[in-house]
Design a protein that fits this description.
The complex is a heterodimer.
Chain A lengths: L7 E11 L6 E12 L4 E5 L6 H9 L6 E6 L2 E2 L10 E4 L11 H11 L4 H14 L15 H14 L4 E5 L7 H18 L2 E6 L2 H7 L2 E6 L2 E6 L1 H6 L4 H6 L4 E10 L3 E6 L2 E6 L9 E6 L5 E3 L4 E10 L3 E8 L2 E8 L12 E5 L6 E2 L1
Parallel strand pairs in A: 3-8, 3-9, 6-7, 7-8
Antiparallel strand pairs in A: 1-2, 1-4, 4-5, 9-10, 11-12, 11-14, 12-13, 14-20, 15-19, 16-17, 16-19, 17-18
Chain B lengths: L5 H10 L2 H30 E2 L2 E2 L2 H8 L1 H34 L4 H12 L8 H10 L4 H6 L10 H25 L3 H9 L4 H30 L2 H6 L6 H10 L4 H33 L14 H28 L15 H8 L3 H32 L5 H13 L2 H12 L16 H25 L3 H10 L3 H12 L1 H16 L5 H4 L7 H11 L2 H29 L3 H6 L1
Antiparallel strand pairs in B: 1-2
Helix pairs in contact in B: 2-13, 2-17, 2-18, 3-13, 4-8, 4-10, 4-14, 5-14, 6-14, 8-10, 9-10, 10-13, 12-13, 13-18, 14-25, 15-25, 16-17, 16-19, 16-22, 17-19, 19-22, 20-21, 22-25, 24-25
The chains are: A alpha+beta, B mainly alpha.
Chain lengths: 358, 570
């Protein structure tokens, strides 16, 4: 694409709504500042009601921020209406125009821009090729499958060559298998075109698979922003750790440390974790343990009791009691491993570096 | 909380869209000038005299004995008509939704459901007089009763009930179809008999709907002008009393005060219906029928109900057919054969039938597209956009529904005959065809807006947003997306507006000037004089025009309407 890539900057953005039941105001998005780099694929991830869609709709221009300013490249765009903004959105419900065929749907934005007929034809053909829908130009939207409709929606957004593509949970209406293949597709096309993309979803695996960066939102504020790797292995809060993947939280006090490891006492049991400089003895810490990061053994490690053991195919699922805390574990490839039964006493083993301390 | 820029940003965005802003401004001006202002002037006229605020006018009109009788008459008729229409409407809906029926009954029901759309005023009154009057075909010629009087309370009540029950039937049909059959099956399963199910499950679920239907009919009944005019005889209702106060007693302030009284009654009913019952009736029945209902096959239930409905439906249909036939009798009530076309010849030769047809037709043809477009624009703004003044637009266009035509007519006389606020501004409007067209528009706007809003609510908001996002401005979104998607609703709004306009009488009769001959006014005039042959001939003309319009619309929608496929998706 010839066009210069643009990033997006949100500068202390807030959106206030009135609660329809109580009549009180509340922040749907609160004092949010973000920087989205040109050409990157950024996902807004969070539970429903966290403000991710509101943020996206403010970028598109459908909602107006109550505080702060939104920049597209270097231009402040708060006062621009959606039709004047150089963004294009892919909607959850596809939002194709049902009275037009595929060609006219894709050509709609170009016609509004008064692009010459010849060029429209050429560009629509090219973009339909990109989304692998060549030959479907004359079909009506309802003659397409959900996945195909979503591709049309994507083509329609891409063809006007916007600076930024916005996705509002675009895959949530598709079945599970199609979702997986479509997200790969969306990522491929974004890379090929090299466009800045902001993607809203509540599906964490989708976010992990597709993004350069993930922004986790909770109750209107950004909880954490980082690469999928950072977010998974270095969550900055229990909320983030719990929201991305599964996590066990072991709470205790740090009792001692050396240069490499520290001991945290959880319910009277010492747990060894990697030591980091800012940790202090006597402080409270939470150890985040991913279910796949530990395994059960007969000796060594932290003593525990098995409370649930079930075969799930690709892994053996355990619930074990460590002190007073219940820990969920996934022992992968269980075929050739020793299986522990309910009631057995055993030990929990993991590398100090494979847990994260909050 | 910090200063909110959201609202001001929304405003700036709106202002960046001049077409949208001017549309809103024009709309608000139109609604204010032609709905709110005429009503306001009625209040001003009846409360303000040269010596300031006063209740004198009200004191005076309440001393007129006929006025007080008119109030009780109106309420009595309204009450009875409300009850009969609701009951018969419920019966029809129940039989259609719950009882297995055959093709013939299905056809009858379909005709009955179409009647309210194409029911010209006077028609039922005329056939009532023709069949049951002093010289009625049934009363005198079949039964030999020579002194039967259809004029008065019972005449009005029966005719109005026949006019309005189809509306109730349509309302109940929608509600009953929304009751999940498993609710009733559960009751049956626990041992309730069929009648117990009806009284303990179906009826309680319908209760708010019944109240709703009753009030809607009540309002229609007390606002009705045409039927009491023809068949009321000396039994005056508020609508006719107001009319006579203006045309007979030339007492305009008195008529204004009477109009205020009538308006207060309808507004009160409307408020209860709109804000209390309507919300309740939809709240209790939000469920969608999960599957087909088991229809009642039991003969002991099926036969009596079917026969009763069939008899009523046939009777109503016969009443409608009577008028065209009546137009062919040589002397009404005395000689029936040989049938003659002399009345039709007369209306076209001596009584300017062609001009009446042309005037009625032209004014309605002008009013209909404006009404349809306006109501679609209002629905679009109300459903899809947010801006200040939206509440006002919605409220005022719905308010027009509660305003009886007679009240509006008096309001226009008082409001425009001397110009706006008697200043002479816009005085030129009074007595022209333009003001008649405006009345037509105002009278049909609520119906169109209501169906437009219902149609637009079905359309996913993001479809319009996507167009907006692609770079279309409001105007483009409306013309390339919204309007094509609600084409069917637009078309039926167009025809409904046309039919309502060409059959309108109550407000128009007060405002029409001799330069315009309207069919409905002609019917009234000849029926008043007792020239029933001529009245029937004019009414037949009206029926022909309206049915043709509706038939054309159905044909058009079938061939050029929104494709079925699109509909299936939503």
């Amino acid at each position: 694409m010839k066009k210069e890539k643009k990033g997006i900057r949100l500068d202390h953005i807030s959106k206030i709504y009135k609660d329809p039941k109580t009549g009180k105001d509340f922040y749907a998005v609160k004092d949010t500042s973000l920087e989205i780099e040109p050409g990157s694929f950024v996902t807004l991830l969070g539970p429903s009601g966290c403000g991710k869609t509101t943020t996206l709709r403010m970028i598109a221009g459908f909602e107006s921020p109550d505080e702060g300013e939104i920049f597209l490249g270097n231009e402040a765009i708060n006062e621009l209406t959606p039709n004047k903004r150089d963004t294009a959105m892919v909607f959850q419900s596809y939002a194709l125009l049902p009275h037009y065929n595929i060609f006219d749907n894709v050509a709609y934005g170009l016609k509004l821009r008064k692009v010459p007929k010849e060029e429209i034809k050429e560009r629509v053909t090219r973009i339909l090729e990109l989304v692998e829908l060549s030959g479907m130009e004359a079909r009506m939207t309802n003659q397409l499958s959900g996945g195909q409709q979503q591709r049309v929606a994507l083509a329609r957004a891409l063809v006007i060559e916007p600076s930024v593509l916005l996705f509002d949970e675009p895959l949530s209406n598709l079945d599970a298998k199609l979702r997986v293949s479509m997200r790969t597709e969306i990522r491929r096309i974004q890379q090929e075109v090299g466009i800045t993309a902001v993607y809203v979803t509540h599906d964490q695996s989708e976010a992990m698979a597709i993004s350069d960066k993930i922004i986790i939102m909770n109750k209107g504020v950004v909880a954490q922003m980082g690469t999928p790797h950072e977010i998974y292995y270095h969550p900055n809060s229990e909320f983030v750790a719990d929201f991305i993947g599964e996590a066990n939280f072991l709470k205790g006090k740090m009792i001692s440390h050396d240069d490499k490891v520290a001991q945290i006492e959880v319910d009277g049991l010492p747990i060894t974790v990697a030591y980091e400089k800012n940790m202090k003895e006597g402080n409270d810490y939470t150890v985040v343990l991913r279910p796949e990061a530990a395994s059960l053994s007969e000796k060594g490690g932290v003593p525990c009791t098995v409370e649930l053991s079930r075969f799930m195919g690709s892994y053996q699922n355990y619930h074990v009691r460590v002190g007073n805390t219940l820990v969920k574990l996934e022992e992968h490839n269980p075929k050739n491993k020793r299986i522990f039964e309910v009631g057995e006493k055993c030990t929990l083993v993991f590398e100090p570096t494979s847990v994260h301390v909050l | 909380m910090a200063t909110r820029q959201g609202a001001s940003l929304d405003r700036k965005k709106l202002m960046a869209d001049p077409i949208m802003v001017s549309t809103i401004v024009v709309l608000i001006a139109f609604l204010t000038l032609f709905i709110l202002y005429p009503l306001a002037i009625l209040l001003v006229d009846s409360f303000v005299s040269d010596s300031g605020l006063t209740l004198d006018v009200f004191k005076r009109i309440f001393k007129i004995p006929t006025f007080k009788t008119a109030i009780t008459n109106t309420l009595k008729v309204g009450f009875l008509v409300g009850i009969i229409s609701t009951a018969v409407g419920l019966l029809f809906a129940y039989v259609e939704v719950y009882v297995r029926s055959n093709k013939f009954m299905g056809g009858l029901f379909k005709v009955v459901s179409m009647l309210p759309v194409v029911s010209p005023p006077f028609v039922l009154s005329l056939s009532m007089i023709m069949l049951f009057g002093k010289a009625g075909i049934i009363t005198r010629h079949l039964l030999g009763i020579y002194d039967n009087s259809v004029y008065g309370f019972w005449g009005i009540a029966i005719v109005q009930s026949m006019t309005f029950f189809p509306v109730c039937y349509m309302m109940f049909r929608g509600l009953l179809k929304n009751i999940d059959p498993s609710l009733e099956e559960a009751a049956r399963d626990m041992g309730a008999s069929r009648s117990k199910v009806f009284t303990s499950v179906t009826l309680p679920l319908l209760l708010p709907g019944i109240g709703n239907a009753f009030l809607v009919t009540f309002i229609e009944s007390i606002a009705d002008f045409a039927n009491p005019m023809i068949i009321g005889g000396s039994y005056d209702t508020l609508a006719t009393t107001i009319y006579l106060q203006i045309t007979g007693a030339y007492d305009k302030p008195g008529a204004a005060a009477m109009a205020v009284v009538l308006l207060c009654i309808t507004l009160l009913m409307f408020a209860v219906q709109k804000y209390y019952l309507e919300a309740k009736s939809t709240a209790t029945l939000t469920g969608k029928a999960s599957r087909q209902r088991m229809l009642i096959e039991d003969k002991s239930v099926r036969l009596p109900l079917t026969i009763l409905c069939g008899a009523i439906a046939l009777f109503v249909i016969i009443m409608y057919i009577c008028v065209p036939i009546g137009a062919l009798f040589p002397t009404w009530g005395y000689t029936f054969f040989p049938l003659t076309t002399k009345w039709f010849q007369l209306i076209f030769t001596r009584y300017k039938g062609f001009k009446a047809f042309k005037d009625s037709f032209m004014l309605s043809v002008i009013a209909a597209p404006i009404t349809a477009l306006l109501s679609m624009i209002i629905s679009y703004l109300v459903v899809k956009r947010k801006f200040k003044g939206k509440g006002f637009i919605e409220a005022v266009s719905m308010l027009a529904m509660a305003v009886p035509g007679t009240v509006l007519g008096v309001g226009y006389i008082r409001g425009f005959s001397g110009g706006v606020f008697h200043t002479g501004f816009l005085q030129g409007l009074y007595g022209t065809g333009a003001i008649l067209v405006i009345v037509f528009i105002v009278r049909s706007l609520p119906t169109g807006t209501r169906s437009g809003i219902a149609a637009l609510r079905q359309i996913d908001k993001s479809i319009e947003e996507s167009a907006y996002d692609m770079g279309a401005n409001s105007m483009k979104v409306f013309t390339t997306v919204t309007l094509p998607l609600i084409k069917d609703s637009f078309l039926s709004g167009l025809v409904t507006a046309f039919v309502r306009s060409i059959t309108a009488i109550s407000a128009i009769i007060l405002l029409v000037t001799p330069q315009f001959l309207l069919i409905t006014v002609q019917i009234n005039e000849f029926a008043e004089k007792g020239s029933y042959g001529l009245a029937c001939a004019f009414a037949t003309l009206l029926i022909a025009v309206t049915y043709t319009a509706v038939a054309l619309m159905n044909l058009f929608i079938k061939h050029f309407g929104t494709s079925r496929k699109i509909k299936e998706e939503y």
